[in-house]
Design brief:
The longest helix has 23 residues, at 96-118. The strands form three sheets. A seven-stranded mixed beta sheet has the order 4-7-8-9-10-11-12, sandwiched between helices. A three-stranded antiparallel beta sheet has the order 1-3-2, with helices on both faces. A two-stranded antiparallel ribbon has the order 5-6. Helix 1 crosses helix 4 (70-81) and helix 2 (22-29) crosses helix 3. 35% of the residues are buried. It is of the alpha+beta class. Helices cover 40% and strands 26% of the residues. It has helices spanning 5-17, 22-29, 33-45, 70-81, 96-118, 130-133, 178-193, 196-201, 217-223, 245-248; strands spanning 20-21, 49-52, 65-68, 121-127, 134-141, 144-151, 154-160, 163-171, 206-212, 230-234, 250-253, 258-260.
């Protein structure tokens, strides 16, 4: 089987992001969903990619998830990667919750990539590995103090009209207790007040974004510190067919105001 440059780009992206749906891959690399289906199935049958057993909602066809398989990892090693990249073995299993969380995080990445292609927004950085997005701070409670760590789901920075803005991201599927989320927000705020954002990510203004379910957004905003640092919106603002929905969305801040993110 002849491996194309586009195939290599897909392997590299899956090496980085781990899981992408066929719909996400179609938007990034192909002219249409049927063209994507055909090529990805060929790569799967040849052992370069593997699919994960996962369904999302009623239309399972929209939820086929691809990951790098051994043959794809071998291509990357031969291309100069050095060590063999991690790949999914046929016997491996991943929980539905883990796959869904990763796919939702990657949905944000794909939306930002599409906006870079179609608008004046420019994605300049997207990070998601734990060591890149973990922050720590000392929380003082009940007469004592304790060092706590919060690991965000992603960090990204964008340029719009030569203005750079930076964001840490929480993808919330309403699975963590509000008490846990409250503590995470307290860690972010304490870290930010100590100058952690400037030291870590430079001088661009930073905001902490939370994408959550419609039923959970206001509850999260209520437990976060009353600061303009924290912004909240619903997961349905991430739309591959309409990436501009992210630009048009109104966000709830922890102080109760709604505003557009990029204006």
């Amino acid at each position: 089987m002849q491996i194309t440059e586009r195939d290599r780009k897909i392997f590299h992206m899956l090496d980085d992001l781990r899981f992408l749906t066929v719909t996400q891959l179609a938007h990034l690399f192909f002219s249409s969903r049927p063209v994507a289906d055909q090529r990805l199935r060929l790569l799967g049958r040849a052992g370069y990619l593997t699919t994960l057993d996962w369904t999302r909602g009623k239309d399972s066809s929209k939820s086929v998830v691809y990951a790098l398989a051994r043959a794809g990892a071998e291509v990357l090693r031969e291309d100069g990667r050095g060590s063999l990249p991690r790949f999914i073995r046929p016997s491996e299993r991943r929980s539905r919750a883990f796959i869904e969380h990763t796919v939702l995080r990657n949905e944000l990445f794909v939306v930002l990539e599409l906006l870079t292609r179609e608008t004046n927004l420019q994605l300049v950085s997207f990070r998601h590995h734990p060591e890149e997005v973990a922050v720590s701070a000392t929380l003082h409670k009940g007469g004592g103090s304790e060092r706590r760590v919060a690991v965000a789901d992603a960090f990204f920075a964008v340029l719009i009209a030569d203005q750079c803005s930076a964001f840490l991201v929480e993808i919330d599927r309403a699975t963590l207790p509000l008490k846990r989320m409250k503590e995470r927000y307290e860690v972010y705020e304490a870290w930010w007040r100590k100058g952690g954002a400037r030291q870590r990510f430079g001088g661009a203004p930073l905001r902490i974004l939370t994408f959550s379910t419609k039923a959970h957004v206001r509850s999260l905003a209520a437990v976060a510190p009353k600061s303009s640092l924290f912004w909240f919106t619903t997961l349905d603002t991430l739309q591959l067919d309409h990436p501009e929905a992210l630009l048009a969305a109104y966000w709830l801040t922890a102080s109760g105001m709604t505003s557009s993110l990029f204006t």
